[in-house]
Amino acid sequence: MILLIRFLSSILAALPLPAALAVGRGVGWVFGTLVRYHRRDALDALRHAFPEKTNREIKDITKRMYANLGMNAVEILRLRHVDKEYLRTHIDWIGLENLKPMRDSGCGGMILTAHLGNWEMLSIVAPEAISIPCSVIVKKIKGKALPAYVDESRTQFGLKLIPSKNSYRNCLRTLKRNELLGFVIDQNMIRREGEFIDFFGRPACTTLGLAHLAARTGTPVIPFFPVRKPDGRHEGIFLPAIDPPSSSDKETLISATLEYSRIVEDMIRKYPDQWIWIHRRWNTKPEEDAERDTESAPA
User: Fold this and answer.
1) Which of 124, 139, 160, 182 is a Cys-bridge partner for 111, taking CB atoms 3.0 to 4.6 Å apart?
2) Which range (25-39, 96-110, 158-172) has the least confidence?
3) Calpha distance 188→248 (Å, rounded)
């Protein structure tokens, strides 16, 4: 498996970038049109999120989402063979001045981000590109050989990985070193690990971990979003920092998390074809909704 991945990586890296991205769009078409991988989930989520859009518009967003995911995969495979010049010429970093409060405070910075654009690639290259140590919390990948390859790829430009299980102490150490710590809050959580926050007009079970850690450490939260441009280049956009929650009580944390979710939603609305609508974001339901679904299910 690893030998095959390395072979594909070499082949894709040898192609001119436009040709490689065309391959990625083709891969996306296969998964979206032939395999139809989670296509029904994506269409359903989009119809709920954008009730004002026509069916044709929804299908067009879905088509472009699969194309973006295919291009993401190709770019990640090519990344092992690019140099620093490639990073300078293909990625623009917007709003770097918004990192100044973090630099001045000496207490690190919490990065609020989402699965937008090519989130994986820009996270990987960020430490090298912006000259600030960065860490991200990651879930364990099943298997033996593949996780080793993925971790090797993710850390090639200095990104540090923090396993999601029992990560609290490692997160504290990262912030004490005045580094950036990346959090994503656009993934579905099981009921005991999250709270229901409005997201595109529906309750979505969301982690309070970002708000909790920001409140406990007094660390500002800096929204960051990768965006793919029409010409194949990328932007990494840093928005102004958000003050940490004033306390660690549950209602305050929920209020802060709602603010974070609204920022994420606003960015997704600007670039709807660059978010992962195939993810079952609303899969966990409030108890009353879950009971209603059970009662309405056919016997």
Assistant:
1) 182
2) 96-110
3) 22
